[in-house]
Amino acid sequence: MPNTLVLPKNYTALLDEVYKRASVTSDLTGDSAMVRAGVNVNEICYPQMSVTGLGDYDRNSGYTSGSVNLDWKTVKYNYDRGTKISVDAMDNQESFNLAFGKAGSELIRTKVAPEADAFTFATLAGVEGISKAEEATFASAAEFLTALIEAKNKMDEDEVPEEERYLYATPTLLNGVMALDTTKSREILSCFAVKKSVPQSRFYTAIDMLDGKSPSEEAGHYKKAEAGKDINFMIIHKPALIKYDKHIANDLIAPANNPDSDSYILKYRKYGLVDVYKNKVAGIYLSHKA
């Protein structure tokens, strides 16, 4: 997609930027030590363990024999996205280095972070076996609070550890509960290790990743899928997640090192995985609208 640069007539120190917040799912990235390379280069393996239960103890023969089963499950990387931005050296100079100087931070803030969040939530929402509430549109903060208690009850019954439960909800819902400022609301919110608001524009059960090449997709990024639903909230037990970035390339190439043109080049690529451990699907709870 070609650049659109308007040169300034009067320079001001302030840049008119799009309002965007940083990634809200970066703290879900797990320990890379828990995975190892698979047989193929586009795969990783993770350990899955189970043990047999107790049996009757016999005073003559002693203990019953138990066993440990350790399997290595293989999953493929499911995220491989990138872009290359090129800015002519003179365009950059005549825009007082804004054209290229701010391009990297603008890319990370307005495109990379929102897409990483949207991909994470949509991927988790599509995992088979996670806990799901009935479709609902909450008319009040009190209704949302009731739904949170139901979600907590479900995870408690499923024996999901209380530690490292992260609550993600739309700003409207989360701010509404915080505004109640009641003993009940404070108690339920205190049950979560992390509480973060997620803009609805990143919070869908399914998204379409735009390829950046096809007609109507030249701008890249993502959009809500036709079958996607607006998410109300999601509770994530962090240890249930496999969120791993195998490779991130964020390179700046000066015109002197560009063999093709007198231009600055910014290259960005992210290659990784978002998935759920198969024995821990109960660690994901989803509520979405109809």
Explain what the structure shows.
The chain is α+β, with helices and mostly antiparallel strands and 290 residues long. The chain has one domain (78-288). Helices cover 23% and strands 30% of the residues. The protein has 6 helices and 13 strands. The chain has helices spanning 89-94, 98-101, 103-125, 141-157, 171-180, 183-189, and strands at 36-37, 43-51, 68-76, 79-88, 131-132, 165-169, 194-197, 207-209, 222-224, 231-237, 241-253, 263-276, 284-288. The strands form 4 sheets. The protein has a 5-stranded mixed β-sheet, with helices on both faces. A 3-stranded antiparallel β-sheet has the order 1-2-3, with no helix packed on it. β1 (36-37) and β2 form a beta hairpin. The longest helix is centred in the middle third of the chain and has 23 residues, at 103-125. It is globular, with a radius of gyration of 24 Å. The model is unreliable at 7-13 (pLDDT under 50).
Helix content: 10-25%
Mean model confidence by pLDDT: 90
Question: What order do the SSEs take from the amino end to the carboxyl end, as H and E?
Answer: EEEEHHHEHEHHEEEEEEE
Query: Major beta sheet, specifics?
Result: 5 strands, mixed
**Would you report the number of β strands?**
13
Strand order of the largest sheet: 5-13-10-6-7
Amount of beta strand:
25-35%
Q: Which structural class do you get from the secondary structure elements?
A: alpha+beta
Task: Specify the overall morphology.
Answer: globular
The number of domains is 1
Distance between the termini: 36 Å
What value does the Rg take, in angstroms?
24 Å
pLDDT below 50 for ≥5 consecutive residues: which ranges? Answer: 7-13
- Number of continuous helical runs: 6
